[in-house]
Amino acid sequence: MANREAPLPVIRFLAAASMLALLACGSASRDQVELRFWGMGREGEVVGQMIPEFERTHPGVRVRVQQMPWTAAHEKLLTSFVGEATPDVAQLGNTWVPEFEAIGALAPLGGLARSSAVVDSGDYFRGIWDTNVVNDTLFGIPWYVDTRLVFYRRDLFAAAGVTQPPRTWSEWRDGMKKVQRAGKAKWGILIPTNEWAQPIALAIGSGSTILDERGRFGAFSDSAFARAFHFYVSLYRDSIAPTVSASEISNLYQEFAKGTFAAFISGPWQIGELKNRLPDSLQGAWAAMPLPAPDGQPYPGLSLAGGSSVVMFAGSQHKREAWQLIEFLSEPAQQAEFARLTGDLPARESAWKLARLDSSAAMLAFLEQLRHVAPTPKVPEWENIATKVFETGERVVRGRVSEKDALAQLDAEVNAMLEKRRWLLARR
Amino acid sequence: MAARPPLIRRTDYDRERTVEYEVVRLEPASAQSRAAWIFLAPALGLISIFFLIPVAASLVLSLTDFDIYAVSSLHNARFVGLGNYVRLFHDPVFWKALGNTFYFALVGGPLTVAVSLGAALLLDSKVVRWKSFFRTVYFAPFVTTLVAVAIVWKYLYHPQYGLLNWALGKLGVHPIDWLGDPHWAMPAIIVMAVWKNFGYNMLIFVAALQSVPEELYEAAELDGAGPASRFWHITLPMLGPALAFVGVVTMIGYFQLFAEPYVMTAGGPLRATTSVVLYMYEEGFRWWRMGFAAAIAFVLFVIIAGATLVQRRFVKGEA
User: Fold this and answer.
1) Do residues A289 and A59 lie in contact, with contact meaning Cβ atoms separated by under 8 Å?
2) What is residue A133's predicted lDDT score, i.e. its pLDDT?
């Protein structure tokens, strides 16, 4: 109950007060430039270990790192912008870049990157680099990357007679059905009904742009999206995937080990988790594979271009030093070191070699998938739109509405959401 | 120093005693009220800075389409009049959230009051031993962090491994997907909320029960009143003020349902547990549609104010 607990405004006030206290404590000496860097979660925790090397090679520049949890990061960044207290450099989830660009918080980096001896756009995964380009201007440099692909129980599929990773959607669906029919797994795949990454990855794989070119209207009734949506909901309808939300799965790894489901779609952090959490006897039994493609389209299917970028804020007073820090974090050697510290995948292919990441089969599957990724629509409303997609999927799966009507409703809802954006574009 | 004012002695014949009155010379009215204003100023200042101004500001906000774009420049905000309210009343999610909130408050509220009254009666009864132990046990859920409680309840509700379904299975009932089925999710949240909150109300009832004079029960017993009519005709009327207080506070709290679905179900499945406050939070702090969220907040304010008035009249009429 809200009324008997400390209300949110009180917490915010206390947080602001303690921040002021912190600001008052640290004061740089006059001839030194102090950069403020904000990092999130595990990355924010670990980046501090790399800073001494930067400060050694850049005398006169000191970096103060502040770590914030992912759950609070978005709000804190927005609040700092409103309060004109943005850091010089920050980590930013790459789907957030368009939003912070829209409010004018970010400094353009295109010119700096072109004349840089360190940042070489050709060494980066193309789809990931593209997520940082808004209206033809570069606003972030990829820091680490992330995408979604399929983790599966190779042993269960093999026992059901599926020995090769499927390359098309129909092979994929048939394979999962075979595993179920052979009694090797209760469910073919786990796709929580309240996650947007999976349906959106399928839609991107099917060639949908999700919104129209300038992000003014939804493109959900177009054939590419409709095809992916049909594939997604039919996984539930044909009882290949259970109709459960993520919060109902108490232990993914236990269920995966027991064969409750034979596959799931997730990101690179699962490689470490599966190594730690699955029993030794199953260590050779799981594998990762790129997403299959819709029938008749080139393999592998495109997936999400995820990960974080480092950005420079427009309000920074030390842009030259801020760019030096971004360049430092982008050096292949630092990228490799960062991958070693966090387990994140480096954004530059040369760093993969340095960190010897291209030696394991699961990593190679990710490398292959990362070369085939595309960004989600670059509009500030994106996350809200993405949640509408799985909500619509859930309504169809539970039989509340037909597929066709659902997509028309989705278009209408999203078009209403984008009304403000259209008004602003028309005014420009 | 002024001399002590004279005392006037009067005899109060009705009560057979002497009463002394003190004569106080009154200050001029203006000086007195000025002093009052000075003393009230700090409190009034704080109230207007932290309450009145924000409330007025959010009323203005609810008439605009203030959103993420307006954060960068106020030129990107438009005055939309009652547009947010019109949109709200055409928004199926809002109606769903409103229905859910009423469901929670109208089922969960009385249930909480009934359970806490029941527990208080048990604790007050003469046959129960170790009263302070039980009082502590029943109160414990109320002071436990909701997030910790929610995690444990999530295990209890687990469709496959949960204790609840295991117990029901022994009785031959098929497993229920408590938090995953749109029909069961709200009842599951209500049960948890009742369990978590009844301890506080119970303490208030225990205190109120202890203040009911024992003579009333003895007299009623002599007149041949059984336990049921003693409860209806003595306990319940004597608990009137406590009941009114508990009812109003519980209901206001329950209309602000937020943390339970936020932690347990994130408003799902199929929005079956999205409350008005959760919807407001999502719109305002997740999607930054501040204007729209402010409109939701005002509608909720009107509802709570209305429900409180209705309840006060109802309880007054009864007591």
Assistant:
1) no
2) 95
